[in-house]
Amino acid sequence: MKSKQLGCIADDYTGATDLSSMLVRTGRRVIQCFGVPDSDQRVGIEEADAVVVALKSRSIDSEQAVKLSLAALEFLQSWGADRFFFKYCSTFDSTEHGNIGQVADGLADELGAESLLFCPGFPENGRTVHCGHLFVDGVPLSESGMRNHPLNPMRDSNLVRVLQAQTPHRVGWRSPRELTGDGEPSRWIVDAVDDDDLRAATDLASEHMLLTGGSAVAGYWADAIGVRRSVSPPDLEPPGSEPPAGSTRPCVILAGSCSEATREQAALFEKKHPALHLVVADSATPESLAEDALRWCSEHWSRSEQGSQPLLISSGSCPQAVEAARQRWGDREAAARTESVFASIATGLRDRGVRRMIIAGGETSGTVVGALGVTAVRIGREIAPGVPWVTSIGDTTMSLALKSGNFGGPRFFFDAMESAP
């Protein structure tokens, strides 16, 4: 059964751009939407080979996550998709309460899919699965930096056990080439230690209407099921090209991620460029913190040559400050206050002429995109595996790099600026 168009649902915004980037690699024309589009928000979608709907459903109530995902599915079906991919993080970010299993089950029920494969592996980024256990750069997930994630701490590397807590269906694990385990599970965690394993997994799913996984398997599945390929991989403008129309300021980095990778990237960037560390543990309001940050930006630009100084604003670089905010406000309220600050900063930067932003962190990316009113983007140059530059579709053109906290090497922020459109 061959496909013509692929409809994708991602459970967060950075994961969606990660997925879109992998599909663009294979020569597909991809449009990414933030939230389920209204009838008047479908510019460019008709010509796409794949459409990715980005949701903020990873850490919300499971019932609401399923409802949003089914609405996205209905939209993708109306667009013309005949195969569907549910994308979650390659570190299987969730809790014992959801939402990966619940959303996958909801989509499967709607599509009449009896058996489901779960393929989170992303070997290129060091995420491998062996005997149903997830490893991050060779370290068990439960011993990696993800063990202390503020919203979705991952303290169990056994994905069979993690998924089984989220679904009434029996869960097993299998090699992509050989069935293992006993009984007859209908939900399978698929091992992948290299890209050949991912290709083999897509052979298993070649007749499936629905596949779930991390972004790395999506391009291989698109090839296996014959998704339309209407363009060559993008020949993008070289570094140093003209900035987006109306841009009068340099690139600004907004880093809300507390991940070890983002902290390392921020520390290296700070050795050469100014950085502001937000502290949300005190009594200052989010509005006043944002005003102070915007004033700080203006002061640095006024002192730099032609206002060209790139800047970093971070909330997660100091573990002690993050912990103090969590102790004062609680995990959810501390996160909400921080995202409110970033939303105000992002809109303030846009109003001051900033048209390029690098956003680190899935929750922060979702907040910033929503604050800026960006509803859809075209996918551009890949900065690092799973992280492309994207260009907004609409009246005010914005160039954004939406980075999952764990992605990218130590020089990611420098690489992003050097390749910025």
TrEMBL record:
Keywords: ATP-binding, Carbohydrate metabolism, Kinase, Nucleotide-binding, Transferase
Key word Lyase present: no
InterPro entries on file: 4-carb_acid_sugar_kinase_N (IPR010737), 4-carb_acid_sugar_kinase_N_sf (IPR037051), NBD_C (IPR031475), NBD_C_sf (IPR042213), OtnK (IPR050007)
Organism domain of life: Bacteria
Four-carbon acid sugar kinase nucleotide binding domain sequence ranges: 252-413
GO molecular function, one term: ATP binding
Keyword Phosphoprotein: no
Record-annotated membrane-spanning stretches: none
A Pfam family assignment: NBD_C
Catalyzed reactions: 3-dehydro-L-erythronate + ATP = 3-dehydro-4-O-phospho-L-erythronate + ADP + H(+); 3-dehydro-D-erythronate + ATP = 3-dehydro-4-O-phospho-D-erythronate + ADP + H(+)
Protein name (database record): 3-oxo-tetronate kinase
Source species of the chain: Allorhodopirellula solitaria
